[in-house]
Specification:
- The protein is an all-alpha fold.
- It is elongated and about 55 Å long.
- α1 runs antiparallel to α2 (49-83).
- The chain has 4 helices and no strands.
Length: 132
């Protein structure tokens, strides 16, 4: 019976799973970005080319970073479950860190739709507030 390693190493992370999850998150982000770019001009939420360019750059960097974080976190969680002992000293800490990274990544990938929802909510709130 071989002894399990207790030290974390990125070399032991399953790169196929990481790449697959990163690609899936990037596809979701591209779809959300496309949907947002269709909705924003139609509702005139972000007027002006300069604001739109800043928004696209911000959304792009957050989306790609979020997708990478999701991929890395899934690889780390799989590593923890497969390679670390059941009651390892750092296992729960690594799993918690990977879960936090995953949630941050999800927020980055979902940034376009979050912004659209917030902006539409503000437009609706201002529209209903002025007519009362």
């Amino acid at each position: 019976m071989s002894a399990l390693k207790s030290k974390f190493s990125f070399e032991d992370v399953d790169l196929f799973l990481t790449q697959q999850d990163t690609l899936s998150a990037l596809i979701v982000w591209v779809l959300l970005e496309g949907l947002s770019l269709i909705l924003l001009p139609n509702f005139q939420i972000i007027p002006g080319e300069q604001k739109r360019l800043v928004w696209i750059l911000l959304s792009g960097s957050l989306g790609v970073t979020g997708a990478v974080l999701i991929g890395i976190s899934s690889g780390v969680i799989q590593y923890c479950h497969d390679k670390l002992p059941r009651r390892g000293t750092n296992k729960q800490s690594l799993i918690n860190l990977a879960q936090v990274m995953s949630w941050i990544g999800l927020a980055g990938v979902g940034f376009p739709i979050i912004v659209v929802a917030l902006e539409l909510g503000l437009v609706l709130a201002q529209g209903t507030g002025s007519s009362a």
